[in-house]
Write a structure and sequence with these properties.
By secondary structure, the protein is mainly beta. The protein has one domain: Immunoglobulin-like (Sandwich), CATH 2.60.40. About 15% of the residues lie in helices and about 45% in strands. It has one helix and seven strands; from the N terminus they run H-E-E-E-E-E-E-E. A seven-stranded mixed sheet has the order 3-6-7-1-2-5-4, with no helix packed on it. The longest helix has 18 residues, at about 5-20. It is elongated. It starts with a helix and ends with a strand. Residues about 15-30 have low confidence and may be disordered.
Length: about 130
Amino acid sequence: MTLRTTTASALAATAIAIAALPAAAPAAGNELRGAPTMRLAGDDVALLQFATKSALPRGADGKPRLTIRFAGGHRVLSLVPAGRHGTDRKYRARVDFRTEPRVGAKYTVRFTFRGGPTVTRLVKLHPRSS
């Protein structure tokens, strides 16, 4: 074999190997931006605020397609748009605590985007604003 045929064979083998690789998974269409914040709003209710890269897709019922879960079983009562921060979309969720909320404590929050990964964040509960 000559150098020319060896090089051609190597290039052909490389092209076949690249073509045989699985296609890369598409990037998730949305992502969490910045640090979520949570502020006490009532005796057992807090407001969780967070931002996303783009607007959340909505289901047939008009609700955003995002699941928010707390490690302690606290429930999210509502999720509504809260404006913009630059090009990011802001959202506000009302959280009902099953136990007495502790100001200054950090709570584990899991955000699951439809068709995307689950993002876990520690969110500190701040006191009620005056």
